[in-house]
Every structure is written in structure tokens, then in C-alpha cells.
Inverse folding.
């Protein structure tokens, strides 16, 4: 299992945080008392929640010790703890007003069970708020798939990254079985990148990390060079020298019904 690098992740912290800001803005609860941020990473999304709900008791959890340490150092007034969302959510309690998760669940298998577990953490009338990337059809992911499964590299990656997201329709059916009050939407962000290498830097902190973390330095340089060459071909340069980096994200809001 690869480890996360919080320093690499926060290089594009503003862009990574914007979906959390947008999701929080859609939560209509006026004065939630207890909130959990699942997959809080370096704490940026937890801070967004704290800004929006300053009187709430907010806990940020993540499976990465490095992320938790960075979050606690960056936001010392907030509370964080290590927690593996695959197996330990039930230990957090079942009386939350908001269960929040920004760009985390795509790393966790078994979403029918996961979403139900997250809903079970809510009190009656509480809100589940989730954002997950859905950018599989974007050039960067097609490039990573093509290179990592090529004859040259596939033996290096016996356990390639798997996307655990369901389809929007599957999430609709799942939520409709759990509650009558939910909404789904998708937003495509058009990030402004200064260079093609900026796209590489972004993905060194996320989608490329499972691959580069298992390669020796010599192989890593060759592998990244192959990815970079394809990125240059796939992402045209705009008139001002910048590059448009499309990033579709899928959102869910659901209310816990009364029994």
C-alpha cells in the first residue's frame, strides 16, 4: 500500500479545496452541533467546515498519518484523528449532524456498504455530503491507463489503481433506497495550469502516486517522461501560455430520514 505525501497534495490546495467550498455552501442546516470530515487529508476541507459552522464540534479523520499530522499542525484549533474509513467508521458514533467527505470515497471499495455506513452515522435529519472525482474520460486518466498497461510497464504494476466509484445512476438508486430527500449534481472545473509540468505535479500527489511510489528512481524518471510526452500532446496551450485542465466532480447531498 502506497503512502500519501501531504506536501505534494497541498501544492494545489486552492483548486483541491474549491469543491469542498461548493459542497458546504449547499448544506442548509443552520446550526449543526457535530460534524465529521471523512478523508480530511491535510485539513483544508475540515477548515472550510469550521469556517461555515464555527460553533460545531468538528472532527477530521484520515487513514494517512502524514495527512493527520499535517492537518493538526496547520489547523491546531481543530480536531483530527487517524481512522480507516474502510473498516473503522462505526467507531466514530451515530449522532452526527453532518457526515462530509471531499474527494475520498473513490479510494474505498464497496460503495453500497460504504454509503449506508455513512448514512448510519447521522442522526435523524442529518445530512450526508459527498464529492468524488469523476474524471475517468479526461485525457490524463486515459494516458495513465494506456502507459501503465503497456508492455513496458504492466509488470511493474501488478495491482494498478482501481476506481471504486459507481455510476451516477447507481448512486441515485442507492440513495433512493435510503432516503426520499437527496440531490445529485456534477460540476466540471476548468483549472488554469501554468505548464504541462503543473499537471504532472498535480497528479504526483494523487493519480500517479500509486505508480511512482513503487518505482526505482531511474524507472520513475522514464515512466514520468512517457506520461509527460502524452500530456503535452493531449492538452493544448492557450494564447496566454496557460493550459486548461478540466476536472469533472460528482456531488451528493442526502438527508437521514426518520424511522
Amino acid at each position: 500500500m502506497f503512502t500519501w505525501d501531504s506536501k505534494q497534495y497541498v501544492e494545489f490546495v486552492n483548486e483541491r479545496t474549491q469543491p469542498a467550498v461548493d459542497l458546504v455552501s449547499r448544506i442548509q442546516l443552520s446550526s449543526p452541533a457535530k460534524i465529521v470530515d471523512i478523508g480530511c487529508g491535510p485539513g483544508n476541507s475540515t477548515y472550510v467546515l469550521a469556517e461555515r459552522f464555527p460553533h460545531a464540534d468538528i472532527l477530521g479523520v484520515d487513514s494517512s498519518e502524514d495527512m493527520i499530522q499535517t492537518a493538526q499542525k496547520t489547523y491546531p484549533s481543530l480536531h483530527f484523528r487517524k481512522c480507516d474509513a474502510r473498516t473503522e467508521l462505526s467507531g466514530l458514533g451515530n449522532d452526527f449532524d453532518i457526515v462530509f467527505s471531499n474527494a475520498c470515497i473513490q479510494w474505498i471499495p464497496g460503495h453500497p456498504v460504504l454509503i449506508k455506513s455513512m448514512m448510519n452515522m447521522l442522526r435523524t435529519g442529518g445530512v450526508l455530503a459527498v464529492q468524488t472525482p469523476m474524471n475517468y474520460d479526461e485525457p490524463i486518466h486515459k494516458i495513465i491507463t494506456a502507459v501503465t498497461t503497456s508492455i513496458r510497464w504492466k509488470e511493474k504494476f501488478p495491482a494498478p489503481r482501481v476506481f471504486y466509484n459507481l455510476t451516477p445512476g447507481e448512486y441515485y438508486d442507492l440513495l433512493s433506497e435510503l432516503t426520499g430527500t437527496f440531490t445529485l449534481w456534477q460540476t466540471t472545473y476548468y483549472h488554469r495550469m501554468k505548464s504541462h509540468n503543473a499537471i504532472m505535479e498535480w497528479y504526483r500527489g494523487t493519480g500517479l502516486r500509486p505508480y511512482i511510489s513503487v518505482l526505482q528512481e531511474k524507472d520513475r524518471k522514464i515512466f514520468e517522461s512517457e506520461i509527460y510526452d502524452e500530456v503535452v500532446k493531449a492538452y493544448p496551450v492557450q494564447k496566454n501560455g496557460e493550459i486548461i485542465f478540466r476536472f469533472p466532480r460528482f456531488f451528493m447531498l442526502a438527508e437521514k430520514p426518520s424511522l
About this structure: The beta strands are 34-38, 57-62, 79-82, 96-102, 122-133, 182-193, 243-255.
